[in-house]
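## retry 2 of 3
previous attempt timed out at serialization; input unchanged, resubmitting
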Amino acid sequence: MSKELRIGMIGYGFMGRAHSNAYKRLNDFFPVAHRPVLKAVAARSSEKAKGFADNWGYERIETDWKKVVEAEDIDLVDICSPNDTHFDIAMAAAKNGKMICCEKPLAMTTKEAEKMVAAVAKYKVANMAWFNYRRVPAIALAKQIIEEGRIGRSFHYRATYLQDWTIATDVPQGGPGLWRLDAAVSGSGVTGDLLAHSIDTAMWLNGPITRVTAKTETFVKERKHVVTGKVQKVSIDDACMFLAEFANGSIGTFESTRYARGRKNFNTFEMNGADGSLYFDLEEPEYLQYFEYLQKQSSKKVESHLTGWRKIHTTNSEHPYMKHYWVPGTCIGYEHTFLNALADFVMGIESGKPTQPDFRNALQTQRVCEAVLKSAKNGKWEKTGVDAKAL
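## retry succeeded, writing output
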């Protein structure tokens, strides 16, 4: 008999839909003992909350998130609300003994994130940050290839995350739909929203980032604010580029912008090592490109006579997560990355081995983001203070 996992959702937007879909489909694809039950959704607008709840099957709505985190019939609080709310909700949820899954970035600042980490440790609550790109089968396969020693010594890591949706000067800032353009709510622009994903993936694959030097730019300096109706200064970073040094001696480049005309969600990385290279493009998520320079023969490595990039279609049952889905050659989609993440979290609860990334791990990404923004202001190299043991 399955055990109920009673969900309290905070927020009803894009991520609320992605996470709700995962809760509803978990037991269809993964043999876990817990069964998610959609209990409550909280949002400031009762009308929008009701529409969301009716569509996804939540039992009730609340306009005060505190009622959700304090409710006796809630086991897990899922934080999908704007960044400036993460800290208060997570702290209250931990105090009330709730499991917590939180969207990225974890917090507005490193200090907030550190307090969140301390709280979940103090109250011993299971926790996870929704860095869902780790759960793309091709990226998980890249991790496996690296751990198998097929890349060898790492030299270079380069990442891009490009979009184009804020180019128009008449796009406003603030409000429910455009809070990502309001620094008071989001904390930062592309650094926290997009590069946080790139940084998390990079440190998962290539180890700690130790130092950074960065440049940011805000191309449209003023925008009308949805809430006040006034034209106000834009304080977020529209674009960010930074150089990185990794603890393993490799170097990296990271670029992100919302001003790359024609790019909608262009997320790539390439890693070059002594024995091989890897390349991934989210616009072709079912593929991982791999270049093998050295291959094992008997007890030694020799130069491969089949050198060249190979495009691996990650749909076979031996590829990460794929045994839970379809037959080889058929693809899964973006929504499945959240389902895979949720499955890992629930299996972590059941096995007693916490899933990654948890809050302590997400704090390390927060530290890099903060160092990037600090460097962009002072023009200097900045140490990140990343704790390698937490990765």
